[in-house]
Design brief:
Strands 1-2-9-6 form a four-stranded mixed beta sheet. The chain has a three-stranded antiparallel beta sheet with strand order 3-13-10. The protein is globular, with a radius of gyration of 24 Å. The chain has 18 helices and 13 strands. It is 51% helix and 9% strand. It has helices at residues 2-26, 47-55, 59-73, 92-101, 115-120, 134-147, 150-155, 157-177, 184-200, 206-223, 234-240, 242-268, 279-283, 298-329, 331-345, 361-373, 406-410, 461-478, and strands spanning 76-81, 84-89, 181-182, 287-288, 294-295, 383-384, 389-391, 394-396, 401-404, 479-483, 493-495, 499-501, 506-511. The structure holds protoporphyrin IX containing FE. One of its GO terms (molecular function) is oxidoreductase activity, acting on paired donors, with incorporation or reduction of molecular oxygen, NAD(P)H as one donor, and incorporation of one atom of oxygen.
Length: 514
Amino acid sequence: METYFINIIIFTITITISLLFRALFNLRSFTSKTPSQTLPPGPPNFPIISTIVWLSQNLSELEPILRNLHKKLGPMVTLNILSRPAIYVSDRSLTHQALVQSGALFADRPAAQTVIGKIISRDRHSISSASYGPTWRLLRRNLTSEILHPSRVKSYSHARKWVLQILLDSFMLSSKTGEPVRVVDNFQHAMFCLLVLLCFGDKLNQEQIKEIETVQRRLLVDSGGRFNILNLWPKVTSVLLWKRRKEFFKLVEDQEKVLARLIRARKNRAAGNGHALAYVDTLFDLQLPEEQKRKLTEKEIISLSSEFLNAGTDTTSTALQWIMANMVKYPHVQEKLYMEIKGVMENRETEVKEDDLQKLPYLKSVILEGLRRHPPGHFLLPHTVREDTVLGGFLVPKNAAINFMVAEMGWDPAVWEDPMAFKPERFVSKNKNGEVEFDITGSKEMKMMPFGVGRRICPGLGLAMLHLEYFVANLVWNFEWKAMDGDDVSLEEKQEFTVVMKTPLQACIYPRKT
Ligand code: HEM
């Protein structure tokens, strides 16, 4: 029955789209207003129909459409999604102007407009969804100073060593079978273990970690997938698709149960009993400045923990998979990296240590090239402005959503020669200590922005770079990675929570030292 209703909805949408889609794209809006009073150009707005058209696209379908619109209409275009305009910017210097030079003006987030978004962000009590103001500042500063500070990150090096060993053991076992290994699940699990330990402390076992991973992953994947339709005409779909709606709420409830159990255990533990500080510990006593200094509720702590896990796991494991895929595809890059590592390892056998990483400039170049060529997110999270603003001669109205095309900027042929090729050598410029000199924060000049730029730049940048450098170095040091016979390693992309490999990497791996 439910499938029947979905088919009716999809059928109606398809008919509407097919009748109007071409017309939408061939038309342009004409106006007598000056540019600074008008929105950036875009396909004309037919209120309900435009929303249906855009909501029924996922981001990977939207990206080529936007690319075409930018070619025709210029670096800023407007789509009309739900009740507000959504502006997309493809130009690097306009992005720098907005997010760096006018950072405070463009630092706000739009309120979630979809049913799913509203529930998941739990009334905007997460760093990524909070408005730009005292609560956001408190939550973000808490994360960066208490957990992502280099000294705290260093105190968790035993956790990285433990996870690395699990990864190496499992690859060693697989290598003995001689069969190619599908690596994505191992990478996702490894990153998840690390983030769970930072979030809930290091006394969890594999079973507990797996339980959290299961609920988080289902909610993450299905919210952007099969539950997405609940965002269309919520009053109608909540009746017609009541079973799916119920399933969504059950999943939210399951997630709350699993995370609440861990949060309570952490809260009730005796103080000062030798546990390393975890992210949830830092949340219990925070006082919300905008709400009479009240403490966070359990649901809000769940929201923040869930954000921490989601933000740091798929992004990093996706980047890791893309980088290793390029190691397999381009054996000369892998060999050059191996030789660099060999140069600093002397007679040591197994682990490339965290202190070794700064002596490996080519490794850093490989990671930067991986993030440029395959940024895990091809867009930022949506930004907004609190007052009408002008950018590039066009109006950005108060509360409009504005987003920036991350991948396009890293592939700009005006900056990068042969931009679609994988060439770590691009990042050769080094400082007097022999370290790669490249400003990934884009504060002076923006050439790529896999972590965003400006006030909302990813606070996990340092941790993510450490994870990528540490794991890539150790995977290449311990194993030789080769393509399966006759496999060219396809770099085709697919949009999930991040932009992943459409055909997940399968590699033959051979221990370097037997
Ligand atoms: C390769 C790994 C990662 C990539 C590519 C990445 C990328 C991004 C991007 C593009 C944004 C949006 C910036 C904007 O909207 O302007 C973001 C935001 C965020 N990221 Fe990351 N991220 C990564 C890893 C991490 C890690 C490890 C953590 C935490 C442990 C993290 C936590 C966050 C948070 C909390 C935000 C919201 C910031 C705000 O709104 O103020 N990320 N990240």
